[in-house]
TrEMBL record:
The keyword Mitochondrion does not apply. Keywords: Signal. Residues 1-30 form the signal peptide. The keyword Transmembrane does not apply. Residues 97-453 form the Amidohydrolase-related domain. The lineage of its organism: Bacteria, Pseudomonadati, Pseudomonadota, Gammaproteobacteria, Alteromonadales. It holds the Pfam family Amidohydro_1. This is Amidohydrolase-related domain-containing protein. One of its GO terms (molecular function) is hydrolase activity, acting on carbon-nitrogen (but not peptide) bonds.
Amino acid sequence: MPYSKKPLLALSRCTSLLVLLGGIFSSVNAYGVDEEFINYDQNEIAIVNVTLIDGTGAPPKTNQAVLIKSGHIAAVDSAKDIKISQTTTVIDGTGKTLIPGLVMMHEHMFYPTGNAHYTEMLYSFPRLYLAGGATTVRTAGTTAPYGDLNLRDAINSGKTMGPDIDVTAPYLNGPGLPILKIKSLRDAQDAKNMMQYWDQEGVTSYKAYMHIHQDELAQVLSSAHQRKRKVTGHLCSITYKEAAELGIDNLEHGFFAATDFVKDKKKNQCPAAELHQSLVDLDINAPEVEALISLLVSKNVALTSTLTVFETFTQGRPKAYPLALEALIPQVREQYETRWQKIAQQENATWPIVFKKMMQLEKRFVEAGGTLMAGTDPTGYGGVIAGFSNQRQIELLVEAGFSIQQAIKIATLNGATFLERDTKIGSIEAGKQADLVLIDGELINDTSAIRDMAVVFKHGVGYNVSKIVQQTKSVVGLH
């Protein structure tokens, strides 16, 4: 067959069309940060007469003022003592609460869209995370690593809006999980090779997953720590005790994923069917529970609380926020509401028993000196929606018995400290980055006020929450 130039000509025309369309889209800010979403971008801003929860765990303070200069916190003082120049933009915080930007530690850029399939939300989720008060997130596992890496870089360069992202590599998992987008490790050497590749590509965290074997996890920890990276894990085949003794840095889902209490658990095998019942039967005052908590604390293993995702399986719990449901496309909203209704109608449900116990254990872990962080995990069957669930996690921590200042610290400074960014973010202190959330309402009197975020400041730029949320209506599940 003689050589033809027609395919190349067609390709050239397609490429030209894409370039042309790209120019059109960029001219209308389809990808960049539109100024309509920014309320404040002045060099010097003062928020005065506000109630301050600073993220350190200290009691809230009323009638406070925070001065922002060049994207950083210049001063924190009482409103009557703060020094403000005539050129400063002043925001009256009367009746409002100011907290640090949330540092959320178990987030994803994907969402369950049915049939065990997860679809990337690289457009809607970064915006919703930001609108939900999250100025820094860790993607605790990814099915589209280049999507997460490129999104992180686009946000850092100002091409789009969203939180700062600590990108976790693809899941490090053994065989047995029926999710098509997740690789199964062949052996410990395969784990090492995989980590070396993704480290070169720019990831900054790693996550071990449910079916990983002990020799593979040992290799993961060795390789990560040599690179001065940290490893978290949603485990099942390996118990919390085994992981702690191997040197893991972080465990996901509080105690919900602990297989330590499964009778006759076999090494390197995930007893998925027995896990839930073991927690139903668990005596949380038993010596083995206290021993596990003591071990985790002594080994400095942090836990990430993700009460939001487990709430969705628990009978008697409220639906997702109305605004969150409005963000869903009709098909996935229907899926969620149908499943929620089935759960609500269950007889002899056991999830309420487990949910209450796990809340108590998270509280006990902190009282024993453990480090608890906050995440949401937008998986399950669709009730955990970026941004809105950040707010719900705060409410659930308070329901678990934490004071509002403790809950805010768990969701801010604790995560920042784990990420080794606490000199820059995580609390409202002079010299730190101006990542702040201004809430319409007194959070110290009403935890549900967390839902009324008005402005989220990231690097000193104040974003209008309402406008971002309205822009992302009915697109979650699509993009």
